[in-house]
Amino acid sequence: MKIFISTGEVSGDLQGALLVAALKRHAVAAGFELEITALGGPQMAEAGATILGDTVGIGSMGIIESIPYIWPTIKVQQKAKQYLKKFRPDAVVLIDYLTPNLGIGSYIRRYLPDLPVVWYIAPQEWVCSISPRNTELIINIADRILAIFPEEASYYRAKGSQVSWVGHPLVDRMQSAPSREVARKTLGIEPEQVSIALIPASRHQELKYLMPVIFEAAQILQAKLPEVHFWIPLSQSVFRSKIETAIADYGLRATLLENQSLEILAAADFAIAKSGTVNLELALLDVPQVVAYRVSHITAIIARHVLKLSIPFISPPNLVQMKPIVPELLQDEATAENIVFHALELLQNADRRQEIKAGYRQMRETLGDVGVCDRAAAEIIKNIKLNTAN
Length: 390
Hints:
Rossmann fold; alpha/beta; six-stranded parallel β-sheet
C-alpha cells in the first residue's frame, strides 16, 4: 500500500509524524507493507516517511508575509504533482496547509480524478472563511474529511462533505509528556524557581514581528521578578542564531533548547506564546498562558479594511470553546506592557489561574479520547480498501 501525505510548517510536521506512526502500526498489525512518501519535515522522516520535499520552513501567516514563499511553494507543488503522476499512490492525505494543498488537491481532481483524497485537519475556514470558494474547493477535493474539532466537523458536514470526527492528535501526544516534577528534574529547575516558557516563533516572519515584543515583555518581567528564568524551545535549527542574539541583546536569563519542547512546557509556571498548536499543548499540560500575535502593518490594514476580516479568536483553546479561556493580544494590543500585565496577573493571582485551568478542563472534554491517530489511520486505510473494492 502506498500513501502520499502533504503538509507544511512545524505543526504540520508534528501532526504528520503522529499520523505516519499510527499508519505504520496499522500496517504491521494487519500484515501488509506500507510505503509513505510526503511533503513534510524531519519529524515525519523520523516516523518513517520518505520526504519528497521539506516544507517545514515554507509557511507564513499574512498577505505580505507570504510573498517570499510563493516560488518555493510552486516548486514543491510541482515536485509533488510530478511524483503523483509518475508513481500513483493508493491514496493522498492532505494535512491542513490551505493554499499549497488546494493546489495539489485541485491537480488530483483534474488529472487523477479517481485517486482517493482524505483531508485530515481541514483548514480553518470554519473559523473565518476568507473566501467561500475555498470551502467549496476543500469539499470537492476531499472524499472524506477527518475533523479534529467538533465545530470543524459540523461546519464541513453542513456544507455537504463526508466527515468523521476523530478528535485532536495532541491528546495522544500528551500521553508521552512528562509530569511537572519530572520535567523540572530533567531540566535542572529547582522547585522554588519561577520558570516562564517563551514561545516566540515557528515561522520566519514571527522572528521579526513577534519575538521583539515577547522578549521586551520578558525583560520587564525579569526586572520585576529577580528569581525568574526563561526557557525557550527551538522550533527550527535555522532560528538558533537570531534567537541567541536576541537573548543577549535583551539581557535575558534564558536557556534555548532544541528537541525538549514538552519538557520546557511541562516545567513552566506560565508561558508567553505565539498563536498555534503550542497553545493547546500548554492547555493540556495545565500551564497558564498569554497568547500574542502580530503581522505586518500592511497585512493588518488589508485584513481589517479591505477584506473586512473578523476573527473571533486566534488561539486553539479559545476556538474550541468559542470563549476567552486564555488572554489573546493581537496586533496593536500585543504590546510588552499588556503582556506583562496579564503575566503578573496569572503568576500572582491564584483565582485567575484557577479560572484558566477550569476553562482548560472544559476544553479537554471536546478534544476526544486517546487513540485519535489510530482512528485517523483506520479511516484512511478503510477508504483505500473501499476504493480498491469498487
